[in-house]
Amino acid sequence: MSKVAIITERLSSLSYDFADKHNITLLPANVIQDEMVIKDDSDEKSNSFLKSLDPKGNIPSTSTSSIGEVFKLFQEATKDTDQGIYISSSPKLTAFHDVGVKAAKLLKKQGKNIQVFNSNLTLSAIGMMAYEASQLSENQGDVESIMQFLTTIRDEHRITEFGVIETLKFLVKNGRIGKAKAWLANIFSFKPIISIKDGELDPVTRVRTNDQALETLVRLTREKMESLGSKKLKIMFDYGISDEYIQEKAQKRFKEEFDAEIISINQISIAIGCHLGPNIWGLALYFV
């Protein structure tokens, strides 16, 4: 039986290097800056672009790839197989899901069975899903069994994403502020912690320091593990410009508290940087 091709978005924060090692195909987004289109199609672009982002300046907008581009990427991903799974971000946050559905229908005429899975998440949460799906594919899992696995962990909320952001200004300028509007009066005083609920960005709480954020995330993780009866924790970390806090404190704290397995530490995509800002860190938690 041929392996199932696993596809997700660069919005997952997965690097192209990590994706290649685990047979995951990444779909890049576009960033539009000063009428120039920048495609997030290499790891090298991220760091320099994120450093250039300024909340006081002109914040670039983002767009999905065209149906033609997605079609070609799906076609390339399934060149050695006739089956694949595309794990998309929540359609409430991006149009990628709908474009993927259309591209998959076109490829069905060529005998390709590409299932589109709505994760209801984004960032490293979908990266974690893609990683786990790739492991199942390597072990000869078929489309139906992998889709069932993804559905179960989504519906049981076994994967959660938290982000600690420096400012809401990027979310405001890109129109994705959502329920966090109530925090705008104190935008300079706190670091918002956000999550994703029902496919949308959801404010969790506000803190003043990264250390306060870390202890809040440890507490929320402990509560979630207890409620799910989870015995094992897998983590992917996200960061913007710098992973220093993650390397020096965050991953050590989670290893000490939960004996967590750290899967990867991922620099966010340039498109995510345009929405959340470059000074961000966060994590995706998989409660096994």
Task: Write up what this structure looks like.
- With 288 residues, this protein is α/β, with parallel strands linked by helices.
- It has two domains: 5-155, Rossmann fold; 159-287, Hypothetical Protein Tm841, Chain: A,domain 3, CATH 3.30.1180.
- It is built from ten helices and 13 strands.
- Strands 10-9-8-13-11-12 form a six-stranded mixed beta sheet, sandwiched between helices. Strands 2-1-6-7 form a four-stranded parallel beta sheet, with helices on both faces. A three-stranded antiparallel beta sheet has the order 4-3-5, with helices on one face.
- A hairpin with a 2-residue loop joins strand 3 (30-33) and strand 4.
- Helix 5 (124-138) packs antiparallel against helix 6 and helix 8 packs parallel to helix 9 (244-258).
- The longest helix is centred in the last third of the chain and has 19 residues, at 210-228.
